[in-house]
Specification:
Pfam families: SMI1_KNR4. The protein has about 220 residues and is of the alpha+beta class. Helices cover about 35% and strands about 20% of the residues. Strand 3 (about 120-125) and strand 4 (about 130-135) form a beta hairpin. The model has no long low-confidence stretch (mean pLDDT about 95).
């Protein structure tokens, strides 16, 4: 069953609440940094790239910078603590630069032109494992949480250099490893800590900001 896409108003409210929750969990103690992009700049980016960004991603671009944080993620079929790097709000110039950096992989692999057009960088999975992107060819409203092949948030291992074999699909586009079903779920995991209760029930350890900072041993 298809899931309905958020309206802009719903997306803005969700993102604002997510940042409130993140601060309540102990992160971003230095305060929220203002957005660096404007609606008109996002519109221009969409027109230039020939893409349509979801209301939720637009709301994130217009929110606040995030950076590195540790949270409980679903990875390798289990819940576990993991450092993540999320960009959050970035300038459109910075986003263009990140896209150019991602496309440098074309110099190392035999990749066809246009194979990156579905990817929007949003951070680094594992805070150093490799770039994490939105796959625009996997609409969030069509995602099946139980089928990782449909997941719209993906990542690319920086230690792999055979992207043509590992990530290139029959459609001529790059599709990375599954990171999260969609952007909403990723923000729930990372900003809201929505998997922490499941982790506590499984391991008997309650994740707190101090526990994360002390190494998150379990």
């Amino acid at each position: 069953m298809e899931r309905c896409q958020m309206t802009r108003q719903e997306a803005t409210a969700f993102v604002e609440k997510a940042f409130e929750t993140l601060q309540a969990r102990g992160w971003l103690a230095e305060g929220l940094k203002p957005a660096l992009a404007m609606e008109e700049e996002i519109d221009s980016f969409e027109k230039k790239r020939g893409v349509r960004l979801s209301p939720l991603y637009r709301a994130l671009l217009l929110s606040h910078h995030i950076g590195q944080l540790m949270t409980v993620m679903y990875h390798l079929e289990r819940v576990s603590p993991l450092w993540m790097e999320l960009d959050g709000a970035v300038s459109m110039e910075a986003l263009e630069e990140q896209i150019e950096i991602l496309q440098e992989m074309q110099d190392y692999c035999e990749l066809p032109d246009g194979c990156f057009q579905n990817l929007i960088p949003i951070g680094d999975f594992g805070a150093g494992w490799g770039p994490m992107c939105l796959d625009l060819r996997r609409p969030e409203e069509s995602v099946d949480p139980n089928n990782e092949e449909t997941w719209a948030v993906v990542w690319f291992d920086h230690e792999e250099f055979d992207w043509d074999r590992r990530y290139l699909g029959e459609d001529g586009l790059l599709h990375g490893r599954p990171a999260a079903p969609d952007l909403k779920t990723l923000l729930e995991w990372c900003l809201c800590g929505s998997l922490e209760t499941e982790f506590e029930e499984k391991y008997g350890i309650r994740p707190t900001y101090e526990w994360y900072q002390n190494g998150a041993e379990y």
